[in-house]
Amino acid sequence: MTDIAVVGFAQAPHVRETSGTTNGVEMLVPCFQELYSELGITKSDIGFWCSGSSDYLAGRSFSFISAIDSIGAVPPINESHVEMDAAWALYEAWVKLMTGEVDTALVYGFGKSSAGNLRQILAMQMDPYLVSPLWPDSVSVAGLQARLGLDAGKWTAEEMAAIAQRSRAAAKSNPDAQIAGDVDIEALLASEFVADPLRAHDCAPITDGAAAIILARGDRARELCERPAWITGIEHRIDSPNIGSRDLTTSPSTASAARAATGGDVSNIDVAELHAPFTHQEIILREAIGLTDATTINPSGGPLTGNPMFSGGLERIGHAARQIMSGDARRALAHATSGPVLQQNLVAVLEGRN
Amino acid sequence: MAKQLAAVLGTGQTYYVAKRHDVTMAGMVREAIDRAMADAHVGWDDIDAIVIGKAPDLFEGSMMPELAMSDALGAHGKPLLRVHTAGSVGASTGNVATSLVQAGVHKRVLAVSWEKQSESNAMWALSTPVPFTMPVGAGAGGFFAPHVRSYIRRSGAPDHIGAMVAVKDRRNGALNPYAHLKQPDITVESVQASQMLWDPIRYDETCPSSDGACAIVIGNEDAAEAVISEGRKVAWIHATAMRTEPLSYAGRNVANPQAGRDASAALWKAAGITDPLTEIDEAEIYVPFSWFEPMWLENLGFVPEGDGWKFTEAGETAIGGRLPVNASGGVLSSNPIGASGMIRYAESAMQVMERAGDHQVDSVRKAFGHAYGGGSQYFAMWVVGADRPTN
Amino acid sequence: MAEQPLRAPLNLKFDYTRSVGPTIGAFVTALRDRKVVGARSSDGRVHVPPPEFDPTTHEPMTDFVDVSDTGTVVSWSWMSEPIEGQPLTQPFAWALVKLDGADTSILHAVDAGSPDAMSTGMRVRVRWADERTGRIQDIECFEPGESGSGSTAAVSGGDPVTGIVTPIDLHYTHTASFEETYYLRGLMEGKIIGGRTDANGKVYVPPRGANPTDGMPTKEQVEVSDKGTITTFCIVNVPFMGQQIKPPYVAAYVLLDGADIPFLHLILDVDATEVRMGMRVEAVWRPKEEWEYSLRNVSHFRPSGEPDADYDSYKHHL
User: Fold this and answer.
1) Chain B residues touching residue A56 (CB < 8 angstroms)
2) How far apart are CA C311 and CA C309, in angstroms?
3) Of B134, B322, C245, C250, which alpha carbon lies 20 to 30 A from A114's?
4) A258 pLDDT exceeds 50?
């Protein structure tokens, strides 16, 4: 495995609504400035740029094109874009670094969910002939998945609330989090359903945000960062879109990606940042990856405390990397998801070295 | 690990038409995939990953439609990436798939690009009303026409050059069974008699709006050897390049964009090519409006700045000329926007693999594929060859 | 002075026309005829709705099987505030329903009245729409209970359905950037205000969220003249959807005096054939009472009568 590492991570504060535009420039420029300053580089030190975003989230075709302004792409840059969470833009950048064509890459993602009705927009990710025309919103579909697990005894409403409680408490130490604080499980369970069986605390909030990560190879990584977070495995897989024909309480694509990325060994994972926008989905992912109680999950607070679409998955990688770069963890796992009810999943493993 | 060799094992396309009424989006994409896999002699288990590209989702009214069609793509349990780089996406999708093999991540990757524009209306999807803006432009043609005028002014090109390119490409299209527009009898006079749409661009100098899909199977050296040992040809990928510049900035040269110049310079260098005009035997260049042929010949470094139109006028870009351009008929003959870049890549590979049928150019050892997108700001391109790259 | 950026509604609305192909076509045609069909995959499972391709062999599915219009709720969630376009306007349950004879569930709505009436394992039946055209909404929704004794029989007749229309109507709030906002406010006062990063930066009209060459915000405001030079142009002859001006008309890049980048606008009050690169033009403003936050306040540009600008003075803007 060629040595490629995360050497920097910056994110915009998670807010319910940014006063900026859907093309993300206002949220991205400070992220880039922070990374350049931290690493002592300029835009000309970046060999490859790759971003993740969605036209339908923004309500515009080619919405990612205006984001290029935040880079300053003169002279022209080596650049690509995926219509996916930026975690997959990071994957594309990792592949580019693996070819040896470049030594550094800057990956970014952005999304202004507040511009539209997110749960309605996401109904358009389903089958355009027989499913989307009914407009099954993303929260309702997640609710179907949640009930399957409740009925099967795989999780309880209390366990789901405990995940929300733990997440918010952890977010107290994350200055960029949207929701943070101490809450009482009984109070959570007494609250109204938003999509029975899901309550508000079971669902990630609507968040506007952006994030950026710098990757580097070998010696360049060591020059830029004292303790690079080396990517020792990164894999992604996809499950069937037919939610009526697969077991929604498991995530085979996550299990497969995790097995390949971890080499089958999850025993020494100190920290796992999981991209679960619903409480019950964290349980599904934990089981799929095979995480034990020895692993701290979402010390950043995770998506339940702020989930900007199309950069939320990238942020999981960024937060996991931060744990390595700060020396707080030796081996960290990051997960990102795409599509309805965990259809597609990416798992990355990051490690520190002496 | 050093960069691995990669080769095109097979290609597949749909028959391009204005509207496919008989298939779903997935059904249409599968036609291209099935043909590519048959051409490459591979089965589903041989494909390690899928990279899919298309232009804005507003064209089809489905958000990330590859999610809903992932089973149809054969992606179940596999890695699936969705690339979107505007009009260049078909080519950048090919570049990403190539990188996956060159990086040693996969042995065989299926790249596919598509557009089913008939689900909506391309003009509408490209010009949805944005508040506070004043829509003066008139679609893509309206954007490019002023810059074509700049080129004509700067180069002193005579008026008939655009018509000559249209005639050449549409007649080539008549030799290509997949082409949307097949016009074997088109003449310079008939083109010049067609309606002026955005002066100086005429109707017959403008690409159609098409439904269609194109797929390529890319493999590593082992996979290529397996194909060669069966007595079939592959197209070795010698180099790829991509560059982006902003849509507009003070002093930008839109008729001869820096990003295109930089990408091609990087490409020639990586491919060990010092004289593109001599060393490239066929070029599939993204020409949606006929004047882009002379403009891109200069931008890509085939001829010096200002000489593109002379090269075209001399007939050198026809099949049989010094550098046949768009023997397939090009974007002027078929334009499913998301797929058009990949069609350039597939056609360049077909030339090297001697599978271009009636539009085959003689003795193609190296061919070039190219696409651009947005307001001439995204560029993706590659060089393929009959021989393994030596550098 | 922190002014709020300007906002406006943005509506993406289109009726998409989708060709359904043979498999989905068979399914929706059956719906029109008050039947539900699935397809059997190579592993023996009956899928409803039928997927186009076999999950294992990837071959087209061809083994169509009739299933019942009655089934069992496999899971459900409650929609307490229905969104426009959803199957029902009163609160309802989303459910995965496994119809008798099928091995997979179909997603649809159940008109149960209240969540208390919903339970996993309950029996539901199709409520057919009175008017059916061959689409998923031919099932208006499900309702609790078994197929009644007076259950409507399947009808047949009519050509196979080959296409459906799926309307999409999404509402967004568009927000102008800080820079665009001061530019638009300027237009509301009859001024054209560009932006630059600092005294050395290029003046952008309209100003941008970030200078595209270096990514720095263009917060410094610079008023420019409403007179300028045509750098290049085209004559628009073609009508197109959404066009507001009657062709032929000239769309030209106008480089205003004081700006470093041209923008597209209309040239009128002159024969299109007389428009030239380098022509000097001046803005023609609409009556003040018609002004809004838009460059539309300038109706068009017309020749100013000055001699053409020297080619060298604008050629680097081409």
Assistant:
1) 57-58, 63
2) 6
3) B134
4) yes
Is C105 at the interface with chain A, CB within 8 A? yes
- Give the Cα separation of B354 and B368 in Å (integer): 14
Q: What pLDDT score was predicted for residue C247?
A: 82
> Do the beta carbons of residue C98 and residue A148 sit within 8 Å?
no
Which residues, 6+ apart, have CB-to-CB distance to A92 below 8 Å? Answer: A50, A80, A82, B81, B83, B96, B99
pLDDT at C1 over 50: no
**Among C49, C203, C76, C253, residue whose Cα is nearest residue C139:** C49
Report the DSSP pairing between strands B378-385 and B235-244: antiparallel
The answer to whether A117 contacts C83, with C-beta atoms less than 8 Å apart, is yes
Contact B96 A252 (CB under 8 A): no
Q: Which of A69, A20, A76 is nearest to A44 (CA)?
A: A76
Across chain C, what does the average pLDDT equal? 93
DSSP C122-147: -EEEEEE-SS--SSGGGEEEEEESSP
pLDDT value at residue B247: 87
> Using the beta-carbon criterion (under 8 Å), do B245 and A65 form an inter-chain contact?
no
DSSP, collapsed to helix, strand or coil, labels residue A109 as strand
**Confidence at residue A1, expressed as pLDDT on a 0 to 100 scale:** 54
Residues in chain A: 354
Alpha helices in A86-156 (DSSP H): 86-99, 118-121, 138-152
Q: How many CB pairs under 8 A join B and C?
A: 176
Q: What is the mean pLDDT of chain B?
A: 96
Residues of A with Cβ-Cβ distance to C215 under 8 angstroms: 29, 32, 43, 69-72
Which of B57, B67, B113 is the best mutation test for A, with the most CBs of A within 10 A? B67
Q: What is the mean pLDDT of residues B249-267?
A: 94
pLDDT at A198 over 50: yes
Which residues in chain B (167-206) have CB-CB distances under 8 A to chain C? 195-201
8 Å CB contact of C251 and B142: yes
Q: Which of C69, C67, C70, C65 is nearest to C40 (CA)?
A: C65
Residues paired with C267 in a beta bridge: C250, C301
Could A70 and C27 be called an inter-chain contact, meaning their C-beta atoms sit closer than 8 Å? no
Mean pLDDT of A158-186: 97
Q: What is the ipTM of this complex?
A: 0.97
The three-state secondary structure class of B153 is: helix
Say how far apart CA A68 and CA A51 lie, in whole Å.
9
| Local confidence band at B130 (pLDDT 50, 70, 90 cut-offs) | confident
Spatial separation of the C-alpha atoms in residues B96 and A92, rounded to whole Å: 7
C53 CB-near residues (< 8 Å, 6+ apart):
B26, B30, B71, B72, C59, C60, C61
Q: Is the pLDDT of residue A130 over 70?
A: yes
**Maximum distance among all Cα pairs of chain A, rounded to whole angstroms:** 58
The rounded distance, in Å, linking the Cα atoms of B271 and A103 is: 20
Average pLDDT estimate for C118-146 = 97
Q: Closest by alpha carbon to A138, among A188, A207, A198, A81?
A: A198
Q: Which among A87, A123, A128 has a CA at the least distance from the CA of A108?
A: A87
Inter-chain CB proximity B56 and A61 less than 8 Å:
yes
Between C8, C238, C243, which is nearest B197 by CB? C238
Q: What pLDDT is recorded for position B141?
A: 86
Residue C136 forms contact with A (CB below 8 Å): yes
Residue among B328, B329, B341 at smallest CA distance from B374: B341
How far is residue A30 from each of residues A27, A212, B81, C243, measured CA to CA in Å?
Answer: 6, 10, 28, 38
In the predicted structure, residue B72 carries a pLDDT above the cut 80: yes
Going by C-alpha positions, the residue among A257, B214, B138 that lies closest to residue C235 is B138
Span B169-180, average pLDDT: 98
Would you say residue B18 has pLDDT above 90?
A: yes
Cβ proximity of C166 and A133 under 8 Å: yes
